[in-house]
Amino acid sequence: MNQTSFPKLPELTAIWQDTLNWQPTPEQQDLFQQLFELILEFNQQLNLTRLTEPEEFWEKHLWDSLRGIAPILSGKIASHPGDKVIDIGTGGGFPGIPVALVLPDCSVTLLDSTRKKITALTTILEQLNFKNTIPWVGRAEALGQHHKHRESYQLALLRAVAPPSVSAEYALPLLKIGGLGILYRGHWTTEEEKQLTSAVKQLGGIIESVDEFTTPLTNSVRHCVSIKKVKPTPKQYPRNVGVPGQKPL
Ligand SMILES: C[S@@+](CC[C@H](N)C(=O)[O-])C[C@H]1O[C@@H](n2cnc3c(N)ncnc32)[C@H](O)[C@@H]1O
């Protein structure tokens, strides 16, 4: 018998519907709960997240992860079976795991340079019986120069990984032409936008949109900055491991 009792995640169906025009099926709600429990269990040995209260986990991990793909959930942007998604710097699996959970026909690569985190995520994903996730240990700079990965993704997600122009250098080489990178940000400044505009131009991209919103439980201001690949990224990008962060474009 399982001795551990875990807190229950809120369902908040009306908020899903009002904010994303989408709501989880009972099976998806059940998977959210299982994911929460597995993360709490693994968190006892490894720091996967500091957000362990049910409401904050719901808002900052589940809702925020899915807010980034709101245009896909609402059908405004089409996703196709077999589309490849990559979560760069996934950490404890966010935003990539909730995205994989709601887009079962897409293949979601969860990339992180910390082996321990990817080992934990691999076990969590096996226990959830996910078939559409690929946990991967590596650096975004190396993957972007790998012929099997370069220009092969439709969607790249980056939350709390690096400043915007560094995130762009990680994401754009991996995207197909027409593919989108979603940068999950807190506050957004005109200075950041200026730097990002210059960086994406050098990398073959444009800023497609900057979407400002507040989170539904704590009213925190957040932004999703969407960058689009419009032409091939020059061969020299991404630069060697560590260089994008040390000398941002
Ligand atoms: C602050 S955590 C964010 C985790 C998660 N995205 C979230 O929002 O909860 C940043 C993660 O990015 C990873 N990371 C940083 N730079 C990276 C790079 N160049 N390539 C791959 N992973 C990277 C780190 O190992 C760390 O796990």
TrEMBL record:
Keyword Transferase in annotation: yes
Keyword Cytoplasm: yes
Subcellular location field: Cytoplasm
Residues that, per the record, bind S-adenosyl-L-methionine: G89, F94, D112, S113, T114, A140, E141, R159
UniProt cross-references to Pfam families, sorted A to Z: GidB
EC class (word): transferase
InterPro entries xrefs: rRNA_ssu_MeTfrase_G, SAM-dependent_MTases_sf
Keywords tagged on the record: Cytoplasm, Methyltransferase, rRNA processing, S-adenosyl-L-methionine, Transferase
UniProt-recorded name of the protein: Ribosomal RNA small subunit methyltransferase G
Family from the record: Belongs to the methyltransferase superfamily. RNA methyltransferase RsmG family.
EC number(s) reported in the record: 2.1.1.-
Gene: rsmG
Function: Specifically methylates the N7 position of a guanine in 16S rRNA.
